[in-house]
Amino acid sequence: MRALAIFLVGILLVGPAGALVVPHPGPSAVALAAQQVVPLPDDIKDAEVLALLAASMGWRVERLPIPTPAPGLTVSDMVLRLGARAGVPVAPGDAAAFAALDAQLAAPLLVLLVAVEEAWVLRDEAFADVTQEMIDEARRAMAAGDVESMALALEPANIELLVTAAIMLSDTIESVVIPGLQAASDAGVWPASEIADPVGVLRVGGTGDDVETVDRIVQVDARGNDAYYNNAGGTTVLSDFDQTTIDTPIAAHIDLAGDDKYYSDSNGPAQGSAEIGIGIAYDIGGNDTYWCNKHCAGGASAGVGIHRDTAGDDAYRGVEFSFGFGNYGIGFLRNDVGNETYTTSTQSGGYGYPRAVALLWDRSGTDLYRGSGGGMELYGFGRDGGRGWFVDEGSEIDAWQNIPNGDPHPKMCNDCIWSAGRPSPTGKGNDNQGGLAYLLAYQENFPPVG
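Below the sequence we write its predicted structure tokens.
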């Protein structure tokens, strides 16, 4: 871990539309004595980030052990079990196709499927007090674009247990599944052509340039410049995807390499986003493009959404409820390396409603952040006491742009901190000023959660 970073008190300034801006080197929007902040390690796992974000909300979560498959259990067995759980049984012959996988690839894949099932069991327990009438009300609210009413309808859910399940699933993917899949790819045992069941439980992509349109509970891919016109790690419980054939509250997507394209024109979750469940998407390498309408790349409504891109120069474009959006739960986007472009309209990029924490966390690179319509309700914005966090940790000079005219953005700035929200500025923005550790260290200065 790096040395302690010491930050001094800055002078509070008032920016446009009520945004509070603290120029370098001020760490806080209130007068504080000099304090010390310990930066987070560069290799911190997403499971640990989830636990820290949950703690910031006062939620009590657990770190469950990584699941171990029972002796004799196979990938084909798990495909059958998950299909039955989703209400779309897989034909035995279709499940048997996965028996052709090399043992080195099948081993981490089996662990992933078992973890998904365990997360699903915990998710069902978390929503045990949510009735069908409540879910129907949530569906109507989402169809009307009323995310607040959607969350209120599902308030009896045990969000702490859901986050506990997400921590387990994320820990399993990072610690066991991704290293195992990479080892199988490096060993040359990955199938050249895809193996997938027709109803949407599991897809193992081939090594070429693939195109996928079927929504999946789990999909993994080794390499190639792939195009994903599906949920790609998004839940489908409240989805309005036209092509949806499977109903799943748990979704996991892993792509190891290639310049990939992600596209969703639905209002349903995609690319590591969740409604009433857990959605996780990892893209490990390549210059990727993410495009969506709503609820993509780290969005969560009564759920936990995790989007992680570890390398490459990536482009994100979404309308709203994306790129670190939370509405009763946790939604975060983490991008580790590269020069990124983020373009959105509103309620995205670290936008938090009450009972939620949302985070857009870009860790390095010369980035471009674009917002339309004045662009105030994004990039570190809290609504009605919600926690919307934006963090850009690189020392590079980033660009902040208001579209379509290209003028400098009215809120964000380099080497500074800001607060924004309505009716009070409860969202936090942080560019090169202590990073996520700074926000986590100053909990005592945040207003109570709504």
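The radius of gyration is 21 Å.
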